[in-house]
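Issue 218. Parser rejects a valid record. Input:
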Amino acid sequence: MNVTQNLSFFTLIANASLVVQLVMLLLLVVSVMSWHYIFRKLFALRKAKAQTQEFERAFWSGGSLQSLYQQVGNSERSGALERIFEAGMSEFLKAKAAAAKNGAEQTPVLDGARRAMRAAYQREMDSLERNLAFLASAGSVSPYVGLFGTVWGIMNSFRGLANVHQATLAAVAPGIAEALVATAIGLFAAIPAVVAYNRYTHEIDRLSIRFESFIEEFSNILQRQVR
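Output the parser choked on:
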């Protein structure tokens, strides 16, 4: 009964060496931050997909681009695709008015709108990919940090055996168990981060394809208007 109490999870953490405890604390902080970013990114991607679908439905409904542009400009909760559309349409209208006033060619008008949409696209992608690097780092580094704590704890356990005349399992088990807790916490921090990173990267790639397809399709529509 005493062995079970001595080998309980919280007892192992409390009896671990200072270095191992610091490793566990670091991994715990990384795990908490990872879950924070996981939930934030989950809600952000859900919102981005819903807004993209809603705007695509409005864009392809056959309404006027001018009215849609005014509607997007008056909206306080525009999505990523709406901001890409607004950037391209705004630049198109400005360049078209300037070209008509100066009697210049209409071809550069489309180039300016495309560049504006690509710049807006890049800003939106940077926003969607924010904090993914932390999840990738947490997923790849946490197991090794936990392994470092395990190796350090096992070294201390065997160092303590130098003063013992007869080594037994009862003497070695607590120290090894304490060390292995660090590896367990490292895996606990790494696995959700890796799963979330792979999932979110895939979803962001799908949104990126939708954004790029919209830029090409919208550019074709604007090209027909400058002819």
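Fixed in the parser; the record now loads. The first helix runs from residue 2 to 6.
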